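I am writing to request your help with a piece of structural work I have in hand. I am sending you one protein, given as its amino acid sequence and as whole-number tokens for its backbone shapes. Kindly check, if you would, that the fold set down in the tokens agrees with what the sequence suggests. You will find the record immediately after this paragraph:
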Amino acid sequence: MLSPNAVLENCLPFIIGVTGHRDIYNSTILDPPYKNDIRQALLYWREVVGSNTPIWLMTGLATGADLLATEVALEIQQAGELGAFKIIGCLPMPLEHYLSDFYGLNYAPDAAEQLNTIVAALDSNNNELIEVRHNLSEENYQIAINDPAYGALRNSLYLNQGLFISKYSNVLLSLWDGKPSLGVGGTADIVIYKLGAEVIWPIGTENPALQPTSDFDGQTSGLVHHISVDRMTQNENPNVDVDVAYEFIEYTEGKPAPVGKLYSSLRKIEQNDSYLQDFLSKEFVKLVAELAVHNSKASQHSVVEEADGNIGLQGTKSIFKTADALALAAQTEYRKFLLMFFLLAIPGYALYEIAGNWVNSDIGLSIFTLIFVVILSCWWVINQTAKKDMKWNYQLARGVAEAMRIRGFLNMADIEPSSTTLIPRRFRLHLPLLNHAIGIAELDWWRYKISFQREDIEQTWLRDQLSFLSLRLQQSECSFKELIYKRPRHAASMANRYSKGFFYCSIGIGVVLLVLMSLQLTLQITIFTQLNEWLMLLLQYSLMIAGLILLWSELAGYEMTAKGYESLEDLYRRALVLLEGQLTPSKKQMLLDLAREAMFEHVSWTSSETKNDLKQKQ
């Protein structure tokens, strides 16, 4: 078992975001009333996700709810009660400009000092502080960060910050009074965005990377954990109807939260609420389960850090490397059991073909005993693959690695996150962990601004992938192991050729056998009796070998894999030709479409391979 720090680096995190009012009672007063509620909420989610899954807490560090939650989190982190735990402070603008919000607050006179103390604590505890990317022009951005009157441009940065936290959190912890926002970027906006509602941006400030998903895609996965709070000030905006009541669909799966309520979406009259609730609940439950499965393996798997790697995954490279190494290890283990199955099955089939010739004899008893042992051994192999879920562990880890790799390539091209997911909609409910992995990789796009370099994209993404695909599609091999594991098109071709050869051979033998048996019966001779017995044996073994070859080809998924590689090879070649020149919007869209095609191919392969799993042959 790795240390909490190693788990934090290598395992996929569960993200809790924080939003709330600035004017609630916080730590600047004696015994703030919501401190214990926050503590109980964080410990509850640790219990839900288990000890192998790291928790990232994303907070905007605003006075009030944000700083109070961060203080509680730091206390729990220092006490080691949450295991692998990390705090990510998400600033809407540079800290020196953000500090201007913290002076002159009647309800929090020590807010600026509190923020500086917490920022220093974040630095000393290996946590993280990032500035959320925005979509303002440089001129408007300078106006926004220097605006003491909180105009539309400055407020758009707060909205940008809040929606970022809301989008990437699996659970949004909201300390909210349940009423509409007083202005742009208020707590209510952040909450209802998480629950599937649209939010209005100030004109000309919308960030495309935070566009809501379409109605067909549904809302971003995740829940709102609502802790109701009282505010120290009253709503003085006459344009806001404080009596507006939001209706929520509650999340009722699993153990109830000790404080507050869990919501999965806003109630939508035009939709079937029970269906929406069921879909979102299943997705969340499956995500937590898949996180547990993946991280139970990843937490035991150490990776040697390499100097090179995907430059689009600076902050999450260790998670990617661990998933990639875990996939290779799981694949190797599954292949060993698959080979063991065939090494047992082949002699079993061979004995079965001749068993009928020695019924009611000592030799027959020995043969049937061996066949029974082979059957039990094959059953044990299949049972072990099912018990350990070997192929699914491999597919899950490979899916995480490929999802992060592909999103990392988009990060390299500075292509912002899209409102449409990279994974096709039909697979969303079945593979939520892959969507989550893409989201984790997207965070590196927000963390690190990368200037587009066509040469890097060509070499690291397009040419490297083309080299990989071309190698896999070669029609030659250096060894038998290379043929069956790394040359799917060649292996599929040879499997078809040899299985057909043995099948046609059996037909020829059958024709000869039929002729000889007809002559023997017609002429009443016995000269062909022994020959017929040998021909019958050859016929049986020819059909058996043809069947075994086809079974191996099916379990290995050669045909499906080869066709997918061929399609992707064509797309990568076209992209390589079309990428010449500057990175225009149309070329960005081309690269985004290429990434979607690659993910579609991978999840289609995953779906197909699930059907070919050895455990399905029970």
